[in-house]
């Protein structure tokens, strides 16, 4: 049981007792395991749709991932080619495809690196130093990040918008990518380097023009010190 939560829900459980609402937020999903485990993302998405119908919701916000996209050195918008590089991204893409035309309205959020839930800040919280890969230009990876406060603002905005204006797919991240080395330095953690392996991505940045046409991102999730400061304030980093 989760502290403060007295209800554990499993797929297939009765939903008739759930209260009415206008939106369902489906952040659950499988992030590791074999194909069968990762395909759980599809069944969970369909379950969220079932819950939404029972609750009278007119939209479901599903957690997808930037991992569905093909690599690109330029910011990637929602019309870009999808060519996942790993099994997780492929599973999220299958989930999106299963939701096409779903009722109520299904909105797939292609989310960037959520600060604190990503591997880097988790490693920093547990280690005195971390190692980043370094590319021939002397820099480390650059990624689109998302603060928890920004994610909360996005969700709040999306549940208030008229459903008629909701897109099927929406990139969710900060307005500009962040250098991972800047995040490390903002924590004061030690930083070591190793050469980037063949095929490593120097940049994974999401174009959030569609999102910012719907709402203002505040905070914009672009400042390394602010990202780290927020994570410290919620008690997840020393």
Automatic annotation (TrEMBL):
Signal peptide from the UniProt entry: none
Source taxon at top rank: Bacteria
Domain NAD-dependent epimerase/dehydratase, chain residue ranges per copy: 31-118
Name of the protein in its database record: NAD dependent epimerase/dehydratase family protein
The organism's taxonomic lineage, starting at the top: Bacteria, Pseudomonadati, Pseudomonadota, Alphaproteobacteria, Rhodobacterales
Stored SUPFAM superfamilies: NAD(P)-binding Rossmann-fold domains (SSF51735)
